[in-house]
Design brief:
single chain; 272 residues; alpha/beta; Rossmann fold
Amino acid sequence: MLSFFYGRGGSGACLGRQLAEHLGAKMNPKSGYENDICIFVKKVKKECLPIPKHSYIQIGDGPRAYEWVKDHPEIGIICDGVTLHKFLTKNLKRDDIVLIPHHHCNFERVLRTRTEVTTVGIIGSPKIAFQYPIEDIRKRLKDIGLDLKYEEDYWGYYKEDRQKVVDFYKNIDIQIVWRPNAWSPKYLPFRRPLKLANAGSFGIPTVAYPEEDYVDEWNGCFISANNIDYLIGSCKELKNNESYYKHFSEKALYKSVDYHIDHTAKLYLDLK
């Protein structure tokens, strides 16, 4: 039996509650988990000490969990990105770290059916999701016939919050991500290409700054833009060139298959 322990926040909702519900696992049990395979999302609850024998910590995007696990070699480690897996393997000198990709939001496998390319989307926290003046980007996109949809209020702690993300992607045709300076060095290894997987699962291409985690996992499956002019030009090409759009749409959709919760959840069943 699997038991998931998690707190509030996006990681708790996705890597804790959503996976536990999908697998029919226990969620934050108060007792009766001692012989289970226990998954702790980013931190081990004090009331669960001493750590049960078959336990793993899902480090996710948590540098604090990484610092904690240095002193606890007895606990297994799960990470959700190739870049982080390389970082942990090297710095912890462990060869037993389990890589399970972070699942995307599109459980129902909804596909984009819009025939026109009219709307570009940005989703995420202000000053992090897109590090360039938004009104300038909005104007430049408008000049080439594209509208901008920017979704900031998209995440909480309940089931309907995943639907907010799904609804966002249902209403865009291109995703853009630009955050070359969003992360301090200590946070960089903990990023994962979830935005690419989310958009790709709908058949939506992404134009993005080539973050290390994007290149490590999705190289060739997104449009890499090293400057804003190239990003705008790529959006224009996606709007006007049907075969160009189809090429990146199909590559992203094919790549996203491995990030569906049906696939990632099964990997937890292999834990011992």
